[in-house]
Amino acid sequence: MKKFILFLVFLLVLSGCKEVHVSEDNSFVLKNLHLIDVINSRVEEVEILVIEDGLISYIGEAKEPANYEVHDLKGAFVMPGLINSHVHSAYDEGNLQRWLISGVTTVRDLGSRTVHNYSESRDELRNNISLTKIISATPIITKPGGYGYEYVDGVADVKKVMEKHIEKGADIIKISIESDFQGRKLNILTAEEIDKVVGMAKENSLRTVAHCIRSYNALLAIDNGVSEFAHMLVDPLDDEIIDAIIKNEVFITPTLELWKGVSEKHNIIWLDVAISNLRRFYTAGGKISFGTDFDGYSTSFDKGLPITEIKLMQKAGMTNIDIIKSATINAAIVCGIEESLGSLEKGKLADILVVRTNPMENIESLLNIEMIIHQGHIVKYE
């Protein structure tokens, strides 16, 4: 019996899960705060921020208050909840809880082998406010003999597969343009097939993200209208490709934490190349969204706040505010939710982090979050 009890204690410690509670009240006031404006890259002193029915209804000078509870933040800094726009294994309550209490209030699952009815599996979890919100992508669409696990062969086949996933409620379309993986030659989608995917996605107001890690495949993706690369490419980008990516307003989600793990595991230099590419892309004015590829490969990942990714982005020369923007408004754009999340503005959902010191000066202040507000409810955990 003693051994059994010790085993249970061991499991509890190993799980690292905390009990999460959310307030019933979703209408209240925050006062005396510094608001991080991610749209204009600045900090504003704000007297009050009012949340009504889960939405931000007012930001500005103090006015005659409604009969709401008031939380005096005593000059703390408030910013949007963080968004990790490239994860896997998101349909897991343990992962969703750990993300939420670390300040990651939204994640985008970029492809599950097991979840195919998004509106059912995703929305059941979304209805639980004590869990991070999920944005759902299709399985990776590819050719037979290609990288991925949703196979299409020809434009007519693409049409059938796209109709299926759109009907099932996919938020994002993911395709593979990967012709060489770990020394294996792979089949890739044709230009006509990619064009059909992207066209049908746009007709349904959906974005298309491409798994593409080699520069010699990049123009095929760009020329046929993809919205985003799911990874930073791991061979050197030349100026022509960088210019094409920027001209076509294609985002890149770097996933440097992934490339760190892959490089260490296989003794290769992909991380160094990816950091160099990110530095040049960022300096040229490229659009960057935040994502780690959590659980997308058999290496370790941060289970809460993605501090490893943040530090690697700093190493690539990104400023703190631009890293914050990549994980808020930019990530909201690639997830297709910028109208409701990603910045603190009137009418948007109240996903808010409160920290004591300015993360624009020291981004590691995000490791000590004082308050988390998710969909207008204050999140508490123990």
Please identify which CATH superfamily of the largest domain we are dealing with.
Metal-dependent hydrolases
Q: Order the strands across the largest sheet as they lie in space.
A: 1-20-19-18-5-2-3-4
Quickly give the CATH architecture of the largest domain. Answer: Alpha-Beta Barrel
Low-confidence stretches: 1-15
Structural write-up:
The protein folds into two domains: 18-80 and 343-381, Urease, subunit C, domain 1; 82-335, TIM Barrel. By secondary structure, the chain is of the alpha/beta class. The chain is globular, with a radius of gyration of 21 Å. It has helices spanning 2-15, 93-102, 118-126, 155-167, 191-203, 215-223, 239-247, 256-266, 270-283, 307-315, 320-326, 329-335; strands spanning 20-22, 28-37, 42-52, 55-60, 69-80, 82-87, 104-109, 133-136, 141-142, 150-151, 172-176, 180-181, 184-185, 207-211, 228-229, 251-252, 287-288, 352-355, 369-374, 377-381. Helix content is 33%, strand content 25%. It contains twelve helices and 20 strands. The model is unreliable at 1-15 (pLDDT under 50).
Keywords:
382 residues; alpha/beta; Urease, subunit C, domain 1; TIM Barrel; 2 domains; eight-stranded mixed beta sheet; five-stranded parallel beta sheet; 12 helices; globular; disordered N terminus
What is the fold's blueprint, element by element?
Blueprint: H1 2-15, E1 20-22, E2 28-37, E3 42-52, E4 55-60, E5 69-80, E6 82-87, H2 93-102, E7 104-109, H3 118-126, E8 133-136, E9 141-142, E10 150-151, H4 155-167, E11 172-176, E12 180-181, E13 184-185, H5 191-203, E14 207-211, H6 215-223, E15 228-229, H7 239-247, E16 251-252, H8 256-266, H9 270-283, E17 287-288, H10 307-315, H11 320-326, H12 329-335, E18 352-355, E19 369-374, E20 377-381
Parallel strand pairs: 2-5, 6-7, 7-8, 9-10, 11-14, 14-15, 15-16, 16-17
Antiparallel strand pairs: 1-20, 2-3, 3-4, 5-18, 12-13, 18-19, 19-20
